[in-house]
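Quiz preparation item.
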């Protein structure tokens, strides 16, 4: 018995398990390990420059000849160039955090690239399905990073009822029980962030992984104080401080961070404010939040790349509270599929 689903057929992978495009985390090593294990690995490109993305795609292709994907920001200034790069390199899947324009979906599809945007509501799924998306990933509120308020158990059926294209469930998955449950709902597979972050092949520093592993089920919090949008992160001292800081102090802190980020990246202040404004997405944001939005990549990098558990923001799903090991990616994927198969067999499916 194998778990042959609309997702495995659409993308040409062995297992209906997706490793999502987590900024600073989903690099060539993790993505190629997932591809080799038979899942769909997705490179995170929003935190990569164009040359870094070129190099990352080349490295994945050198490590594996299995299909993989790239997560794009449709509103990036060089989004068109990145789409051309995916086409040139024959990347199998384009995933998007924000809905891509209709023309961008059409161009990718015309060149045989499977388009899988992430959505947080049934009406977003309807919109991208009407624009030609091949499938959607729906992320419930349990999920790590930017997230909504509705749990996967309710969001997933609402999206399944709304669209006819394959739906991949995300937010709170980590084992074969979740995979079997998602398939029972009618999903075509599951996508996971936090579980793959906590794998042997993930390049997140070991001391940061240990901080994740020490968390219980209440170890995360959804905060708007990082960039103005609801963001599920570990409840660290820094986040507690951000949560309790008043508006004026928040602005001073954000400005100080902005200056530090500028020193590291060489980005001009107007460019940073533009970045912050780009993240507004129609949300009401204070100036302090706009500045913080510009800082978000730096705060995430400080935690996830530099290992600054004191000064960094660590995005995480609630599922972190149920994870206490660092298996290989192959053990994660194969273990989940075997457990799901056993459950479905026991249930007579
Ligand atoms: C550390 C981290 C970074 C993330 N970065 C991104 C990102 O850059 N783009 C994106 O679309 N989603 C991002 N996400 C969300 C994940 O892609 C995924 O939807 C989510 O982790 C699923 O929930 P789970 O953590 O319960 O598996 C991130 C999640 C985490 C934990």
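Solution:
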């Amino acid at each position: 018995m194998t778990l042959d689903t609309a997702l495995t057929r659409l993308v040409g992978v062995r297992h209906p398990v997706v490793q999502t495009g987590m900024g600073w985390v989903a690099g060539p090593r993790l993505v190629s390990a997932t591809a080799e294990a038979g899942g769909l690995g997705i490179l995170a490109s929003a935190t990569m420059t164009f040359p870094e993305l070129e190099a990352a795609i080349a490295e994945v292709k050198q490590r594996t000849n299995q299909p993989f994907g790239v997560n794009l920001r449709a509103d990036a200034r060089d989004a068109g160039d990145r789409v051309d790069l995916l086409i040139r390199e024959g990347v199998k899947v384009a995933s998007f955090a924000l809905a891509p324009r209709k023309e961008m979906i059409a161009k990718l599809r015309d060149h045989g690239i499977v388009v899988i945007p992430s959505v947080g509501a049934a009406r977003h799924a309807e919109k991208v399905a009407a624009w030609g998306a091949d499938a959607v990933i729906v992320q419930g509120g349990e999920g790590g990073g930017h997230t909504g308020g509705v749990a996967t158990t309710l969001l997933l059926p609402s999206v399944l009822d709304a669209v006819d294209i394959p739906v991949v469930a995300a937010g709170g998955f980590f084992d074969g029980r979740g995979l079997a449950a998602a398939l029972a709902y009618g999903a075509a597979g599951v996508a996971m962030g936090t579980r793959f972050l906590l794998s042997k092949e993930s390049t997140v520093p070991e001391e940061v992984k240990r901080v994740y592993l020490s968390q219980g089920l209440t170890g995360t919090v959804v905060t708007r104080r990082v960039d103005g949008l609801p963001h599920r992160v570990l409840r660290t001292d820094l986040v507690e401080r951000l949560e309790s800081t008043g508006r004026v102090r928040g602005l001073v802190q954000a400005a100080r961070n902005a200056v530090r980020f500028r020193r590291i990246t060489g980005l001009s202040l107007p460019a940073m404010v533009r970045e912050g404004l780009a993240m507004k997405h129609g949300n009401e944001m204070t100036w302090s939040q706009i500045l913080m939005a510009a800082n978000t990549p730096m705060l995430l990098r400080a935690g996830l790349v530099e290992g600054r558990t004191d000064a960094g923001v660590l995005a995480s799903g609630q599922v972190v509270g149920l994870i206490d090991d660092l298996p290989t990616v192959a053990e994660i994927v194969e273990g989940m599929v075997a457990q799901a198969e056993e459950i479905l067999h026991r249930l007579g499916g």
